[in-house]
């Protein structure tokens, strides 16, 4: 089949033209513009397999192995959370505090692909400590850190446990932790993402409860992404303030113990 026919057939099956074009261009290692200008070429069978995979609900970013975040391209792979737009708001808040307090370091707990850590290092020059309980996530985060050549120390482990010996010197904690309630049924597309990156007990609060119980945060700023219905519980738990995202929903927790 010609590329133009393939795009039309898959559009009828429900695959947006844009996505078909992105996948064809990726497979043939050409630009989308090139593909559009040469859409009378024969389409290789391998491409049809990719299009079928996408049509079955498998995330586009996992097929491409890349994802956009805060204007940059990052590696991503199955087993590691695909970044969400809300997290750009967490990054913006962090940049504001880093500049206001002239911070020199921070820890990102739950690195995932490392998008928060790498973006903050590039935007502000801050040194990043980072942890994740997932080996796969740590691998991808390190790959992204290498891609952009940032100054960092990423270690496998829970919370800030791998950095206990320097905990007192860490100035800020940034985290987009798991916060989905364990009884929530995910849409098909989310079911490909790692459960340990999403679920956090019956109220989705396990990560926050354990972190604030375990760590003394005197002298530090803690910024965390939260579920839209967790603001009240977290205000009560931490005494911090809640900030809304661009959709007007409670989304970020700020506990400032520098003041
Ligand atoms: C919601 S994902 C966020 C990933 C990435 N920071 C982002 O915003 O796209 C949460 C990440 O935290 C990790 N994680 C879960 N519990 C953790 C813990 N107790 N300590 C460190 N990392 C944890 C998961 O493996 C996952 O990579």
Give descriptors for this structure.
PrmC_N; alpha/beta; peptide chain release factor N(5)-glutamine methyltransferase; seven-stranded mixed sheet; two-stranded antiparallel sheet; 2 domains; 259 residues; nucleic acid binding; Rossmann fold; binds S-adenosylmethionine
What does it look like?
The chain has 259 residues and is an alpha/beta fold. The protein folds into 2 domains: 3-56, no CATH class; 81-256, 3-Layer(aba) Sandwich (Rossmann fold), CATH 3.40.50.150. Helix content is 39%, strand content 17%. It contains 10 helices and 9 strands. It has a 7-stranded mixed beta sheet with strand order 5-4-3-6-7-9-8, with helices on both faces. A two-stranded antiparallel ribbon has the order 1-2. Helix 2 (17-28) packs across helix 4 (45-55). The protein is elongated and about 65 Å long. The protein starts with a helix and ends with a strand. The structure holds S-adenosylmethionine (SAM). S-adenosylmethionine binds next to helix 7 and strand 4. Pfam families: MTS, PrmC_N. This is peptide chain release factor N(5)-glutamine methyltransferase. Residues 14-65 form the Release factor glutamine methyltransferase N-terminal domain. It catalyses: L-glutaminyl-[peptide chain release factor] + S-adenosyl-L-methionine = N(5)-methyl-L-glutaminyl-[peptide chain release factor] + S-adenosyl-L-homocysteine + H(+).
Short description:
The protein has about 260 residues and is α/β, with parallel strands linked by helices.
